[in-house]
Amino acid sequence: MRRRTDPEEGPSRRGLLAATGAAGITGLAAGTGAGHAFADRRTEEENARALAPSRARAGDRDGLPPALLAPTPSQVRLVALDLRAEPGERAREAARRVLRTWSREIGALHGHGLGARVEGAPTLGLFPASLGVTVGLGASLLDRIGAQDRLPPHMEDLPAFASDRLEPAWCGGDLLLHAGAEDPVVLSSAVGHLVGAVAADARPRWSLPGFQRSAAAAQDPGATPRNLMGQIDGTVNPHASDPVFGPQVLAAHPEPALAWMDGGTYLVVRRIRMLLDDWYSLDPVDREAVIGRRLSTGAPLGGGAEDDLPDLSATGEDGTPVIAPDAHIRLAAPGNTLGARMLRRGFNYDLGWDADGVRQAGLVFTAWQADPRAGFTPVQRALDEGSDALHRYVRHEGSALFAVPPVREGRPWIAHDLLPG
Asked: Going along 106-160, which residue ranges are E strands?
């Protein structure tokens, strides 16, 4: 149960073949003698086994979009786009073209990579690297195409929160590309290809790259990753095999007007800048108190392991709570948020320093849920009302909400039930 987002799955045949192929090529190229060749081959085989699970993430499974498949990719890029066409029938036709084009190109990229689509692509010689692309639709898109009656109430605007310092240029969007892969060249090339393929109909609004540590660098590839604050980030997430996964993550829409989203999910994206200089000026003990977890293990204060349930009633010898009243995990706990839960996936971003010497780095926070009104919103409200200690060290600078339709076999393109043609 160490990393609840990533089920323990064996590598697929394709993943094993890809990994073995890479090992064989490297071994042949490096072999200068029998002993060296054997040592190199053994090292490459060990690396291949470590990388096989991440290389095995490909395609659709149980109707889930690639972004919800496991293991979580080490590299992601999110791009929000707006339609160029004026609202009405022209926007409707443009949206249909975009979704039809993306469905065709994404299928080809998942299957064969960009090298099979573009001559001289920068990915020549590279495996698809578990590329997975997920598409989201913003509420503004349904407004543009005149489908307000098909808009789920789950897509109502998020309320304002105390930690918001939102920049309009980093918010919203008609459409979203959420792409993940194990290689930055594969990822960058695929996203550039998909954005370029619809350039006549849609223009980028904002984009943000994200990353986690790679499987190759991790001493324990199954461990929950850390964010740039040094905190283990992503503990106690719903697992796809858990009975609660469906009710918490996947939307239920029996009503005919909203059937296009039945079995889909709603994605909240937050661009959260971390004030890292201020954060690391704190003593480690104070950093632990802000979150309510140990830096070394991720265990809740007073607990022994990362997955231990926080004891919110525990007090120290002086009678003060072991987990402070304003600690992040206390305020975000289900008991303090009417049982709100969501699948949280965070990725680091680091854009360097701006002209004033301020570091632009933090968290690409993504929350996947059946209904944001019962997931993200009550959690964020509880953090506001409790004066979350973490708010002093973060700024929410970008925000967006997207509907992610289910993956349905036999449909000619994404969201075909919403935009047939």
From this structure: 132-138
Tell me whether residue 233 is one of the annotated catalytic residues: yes
pLDDT tens-place string over residues 74-99: 999 999 999 999 999 999 999 999 99
What are the C-alpha distances in Å from 232 to residues 288, 340, 353? 11, 21, 24
Instruction: Find the DSSP H helices in 326-375.
Output: 328-332
Interval 173-222: pLDDT, tens: 999 999 999 999 999 999 999 999 999 999 999 999 999 998 878 889 88
Q: What pLDDT shows up at residue 319? A: 96
Helix axes of 13-30 and 34-55: crossing angle, nearest 10 degrees: 150
SS3 content of the chain, % helix, strand, coil (to 5): 35, 20, 45
Mean pLDDT of the chain: 87
**Could you report the per-residue pLDDT of 389-407, keeping only the tens digit for each?**
999 999 999 999 999 999 8
- Length of the chain in terms of residues written: 421
| Cβ contact 381:239 at 8 Å | no
Q: Name the residue with tokens 């495996």.
A: 127
Beta partners for residue 268, in sequence order: 367, 401
Which residue type, as a one-letter code, is found at position 86? E
H/E stretch holding 179: strand 175-181
Q: Is the CB of residue 175 less than 8 Å from the CB of residue 80?
A: yes
Tokens of 307: 């997955």
Whether the CB-CB separation of 135 and 176 falls below 8 Å is answered with yes
Which of 6, 233, 371, 388 is catalytic? The answer is 233
